[in-house]
Amino acid sequence: MQAALEQIEIKIAYLERTTVELSDVAFRQHREIQELQAQVKLLQQRLSSVQTLEEPRDLDHERPPHY
Length: 67
Fold this sequence. Notes:
Blueprint: H1 2-53
């Protein structure tokens, strides 16, 4: 009976440690996702500002890429 109780306590300790590790991973991933979203937003803004400054091109007079 004592051995079975010790095995249960070991498993509970292992599960608690695993839960903490998974929580840490989830927190780091959440923070990284937020940083990546901020970078994407910045890049979208920069791309939008570049596109508004660019003059429209006349594709009828543009040479094909193989020339």
